[in-house]
Amino acid sequence: MTDIVVTREDGPTGGRYLTTIDGHTAEMTYSKAGATRSIIDHTGVPDALRGKGAGQALVKRAVENARAAGIKIIPLCPFAKAQIGKHPDWQDVLA
C-alpha cells in the first residue's frame, strides 16, 4: 500500500481523494462541516481494484490530513467507518 499515490482535490465545501491504478480510479468524497470537522460520505472502488488496498489508502490519507490540520472526521461512509474501526491508531481523528 505504500506505493499507492493518493491525490486530493479540495474545494470550499468539500472535496475528494483519488488514486488511479492500472487505469482504474478509486475515489472518496468528503464534505466540510464547519472549520473543524469533515464528513466522509462516499468511497467508490472499481471492481478491478478491490483487494488492492486502494480504498484503505484513501482513508489513510484522509486520516493523515485530518490529523495534520487538527480536524475531526465523521465517517458516514460505511467503508471509511469500518477502516477507521480496524485501525486503533486512526481513531484519534474521530469526531
Structural commentary:
- There is one protein chain.
- The mean pLDDT is 95.
- The longest helix is centred in the middle third of the chain and has 16 residues, at 54-69.
- The protein has one domain (7-93): Aminopeptidase.
- It is built from two helices and five strands.
- Helix 1 (54-69) crosses helix 2 (78-86).
- With 95 residues, it is of the alpha+beta class.
- The chain has a five-stranded mixed β-sheet with strand order 1-2-3-4-5.
- Helices cover 26% and strands 35% of the residues.
- Strand 3 (24-32) and strand 4 form a beta hairpin.
The CATH superfamily is known as Gcn5-related N-acetyltransferase (GNAT)
Into which percent range does the helicity of residues fall?
A: 25-40%
Instruction: Please identify the structural class as seen in this structure.
Output: alpha+beta
Our count of domains comes out at 1
Mean pLDDT: 95
Overall, the morphology is: globular
Separation of the first and last Cα atoms: 26 Å
Main-sheet strand order equals: 1-2-3-4-5
Proportion of beta-strand residues: 25-35%
Cα radius of gyration in angstroms: 12 Å
What characterizes the major β-sheet? 5 strands, mixed
How many DSSP H or I helices? Answer: 2
Low-confidence stretches: none
CATH topology: Aminopeptidase
CATH architecture: 3-Layer(aba) Sandwich
Number of strands: 5
Task: Supply the CATH class.
Answer: Alpha Beta
The helix/strand order is EEEEHEH
